[in-house]
Amino acid sequence: MAKKSDVTLHPTRNTMSENTRGAMVGLLQKHLGTAIDVTYAAKQAHWNVKGMNFIAVHKLFDELHEKAEGYVDEIAERLTALGGQAVGTVQGASANTILEPYPTDLVDSEGHLKRLADHYANWGAAIREGISEADDAGDDLTADLLTGVGRGVEEALYFLESHFQSK
Asked: How many Å apart are CA 115 and CA 125, to the nearest integer?
């Protein structure tokens, strides 16, 4: 859990303890950075994909981008509702993401599908840990938010992995 001293909180009438709010803001900031990272990894793939099934994966990557962009907004709004300051710049996302950098020289559809699947799988695992952390802290609303995001992330992973599963 993030410590209260790690995060500056704005005054709020939210009745959760300051320590819990600080910890949840820290948790949510990590997921905000990761959501922004995933959003633009999907867009990077959308812009640069080439090869067989181009139009299908081009459209899929754009849809993944749009959905992830929605997660960015949901996470940032929860973070700020707890009194936190959302760090949503490119530099902030880069500092807070849990993911490895997305390659900028990738063009083949299979490579993009596999790399995005890795991103979604890693983020999904972190989301499950975050749900447990929020539950342990007694923050049902953050746990619920992460559960909803997690459902979408796992659906995206299913869409990506379906390109490789044939049996």
From this structure: 16
In a domain, 133, yes or no: yes
pLDDT tens-digit profile of 74-121?
999 999 999 999 999 999 999 999 999 999 999 999 999 999 999 999
Determine if residue 51 is left, alpha or beta; phi over 0 gives left, psi from -120 to 50 gives alpha, anything else beta: left
Number of domain units in the chain: 1
Residue 1 located in a structural domain? no
- Interior angle at CA 38, CA 137 and CA 147, nearest 5: 35
* Contact call for residues 32 and 79 (beta carbons, < 8 A): yes
Residue 19 belongs to domain spanning = 9-161
8: Cβ contacts below 8 Å, ≥ 6 apart: 84, 85
